[in-house]
Amino acid sequence: MVVTFFPILYLKCMEAIRINDFENQKMSETAIINRILEGEKELYEILVRRNNQKLYRIIRSYIQDEAEIEDLMQDSYIKGFTKLYQFKHNSSFSTWLIRIGINESLTRINEKGKLSHLSEQFDDFKSNTILEIPDSKQLNPQDKMIRNEAKQLLENAIDRLDLKYRTVYVMREVEEMSMKEIAVALDITVANVKVRLHRAKEMLKEMLYEMTNDTNVFEFGYSRCDKLTEAVMKNI
Description:
mainly alpha, Rna Polymerase Sigma Factor, Chain: A, 2 domains, disordered N terminus
């Protein structure tokens, strides 16, 4: 879907917003929305930038193709903009936007007849993306490699979860949404959210154990073995 008045650059946080940067970033969600509805359309960029990461992760729970994810993100933002007058402020804008994103994703899946093939799609997923969880400290190259491998392992395990469990897990554990926010976004009860989250964690534990239960860990072979052997033999 191509919309000329809503450029694709809104989907990428490539540079800071240039409209009175600091003050606009401090504006409350309600104030921004009210000003947009009064005609300051350019302020919608602030809401887009604030929600890009969260919306990406939620839609990615449903759709794995990167280009398709961005397409759905743009569709969701555009629908959110055109329907902004319907936003009632009884939940956060992000929760309302996520509901739109989920509906867009489910519509796309149904249109393509993917529902019966979801498990195959996730099995075939190419592991070339990493969840963008920021580093809490500066890491040396080896530590970064280990961290990325661990993140990749977790991501692959999350992708193997059934859709209803994967979505709840990403919302709660990755995006840190509240139980109530998740319930509103998915239109289920808080109790159901808790059950799905618990089940998701249990399944992840089982999968990660299977994926790491390898007797070939901590190997010391090949070039490392040769190098140490050579050093020892030179010193005896």
